[in-house]
Amino acid sequence: ATATDVVSADEIRDRFSRAMSAMYQAEVPQYETLLTLVDEVNRETLARDAALAERLEAFDELNRLGVERHGAIRVGSAEELSMLRRLFAVMGMYPVGYYDLAEAGVPVHSTAFRPVDDAALARNPFRLFTSLLRLELIESEALRERAAAILAERDIFTREARELIALAEDQGGLTDEQADRFVTAALETFRWHRDATVDLDTYEALNAEHRLIADVVCFRGPHINHLTPRTLDIDEVQRRMPAAGMNPKAVIEGPPRRDCPILLRQTSFKALEEPIRFAGDRQGTHTARFGEIEQRGVALTAEGRALYDRLLAASKEGTAGLAHEAHQQALAEAFADFPDDEAELRRRGLAFFEYRLTDAGRASGPVDASDPEALIARGLVVARPITYEDFLPVSAAGIFQSNLGDGGGEAYAGHANRAAFEADLGAAVTDELSLYAERERASLAAVREALAG
Ligand code: OOG
Ligand code: NI
Predict the structure, then answer these.
(1) From CA 218, how far away is CA 200, in angstroms rounded?
(2) Which residues contact 104 (CB under 8 A, 6 or more apart)?
(3) pTM of the predicted model, to two decimals?
(4) Atom nearest to 131 CA in ligand 1
(5) Most buried in the list 89, 150, 243, 255, measured by CB within 10 Å?
(6) Ligand 1 centroid – CA 6 distance (Å)
(7) Which of 129, 225, 402 most suits a substitution to test ligand 1, by most atoms within 8 Å of the C-beta?
(8) Global ipTM
(9) What is the domain class of 3-299+386-416 according to CATH?
(10) Where along the chain do its domains lie?
């Protein structure tokens, strides 16, 4: 194949995310119901809020809204993780961010595979939150060895997937026909299996150690455990979930509802208990798969994030155990010191923005372009909040926990170990803040250059 007949990585990711969604809808009918509900609320929100609709359109976010989702998987070994890195690279998805969840009582560390450049994000921002089990955190040596031995036996990739990944690397991409075969072959890795690879006793021993360990170790592959559409009004979707037959988790994770949404708010419906056939032909059940929704806001700078983390930590005592409405109320009070005005977020350097010329800006002659706020005031430039494309470890732990049963949550003694994660991944993870900072810097430089004449 030559460079002209390969399809773009963006195109492959788009096909893959649609195929994944179709597979999950077929596997988990409640997910289809959730998509319908989110779509309905998004339409109503856009109809009610013309300014929001206009803004999303102007900022290239309206088109991606309908296809936008993230998923999550969990793997057991360095070999699996590094092969996944190569698989996702075929689709233009790269590891961004390092998340340590051991501190929150979940024995994994994680990254998100996602597109990084503007055009790729605008086309389809599909991301996968990918966790690696930290076997070293299992206390019992016998169980640790048993788990490692079981994992060593499995190959989560089909032969065709492996071949096509290698081919894509050699060729610098895949042709249209190869891309379709790749999507089908890659999808196999994430499929649900009703048959466990172990007997019920082994499952129960691993499950007793931690439910997540059983989930990773006892099956043929890392089944996709949820897919998450993006909503424009998470409070409304949460409110309507019970009537649509879904059992939402008690509270929405992340920041409170605000005029200027920041970071990420998430909620989920509880995992389903599903029948499993164990080796030796014994029946049992396993609980792993759930549905989730998210609402995304502006990415925060290091200063903004530090303020968020501080306020969230301070709110913990006052919000513990509260039901949704009271929880939101208490959270809003705890976040009173977080500016809820775009201009102030910008002036105080708390959030990232992308600067663009207006029509007046394009028509303008040379001006003093040193102060972006002055340019905005004169109508020459607009600032667009840059959407947060990543995840939040405290929220992720809350999502994990609500789907692993409400017990647990005790911190593991092991420390975050980014270096070990990167060694297992076979690559460094990109620092998410540097991506947003670079987008802001480049946009401001372009605006200044155009206006300086
Ligand atoms: C991942 C949980 C984290 C999110 O959106 O923060 C997550 C998992 O349960 O595997 O998906
Ligand atoms: Ni999620």
Answers:
(1) 10
(2) 393, 394, 397, 400, 401, 409, 411
(3) 0.94
(4) 10
(5) 255
(6) 33
(7) 129
(8) 0.99
(9) alpha beta
(10) 3-299+386-416, 300-337
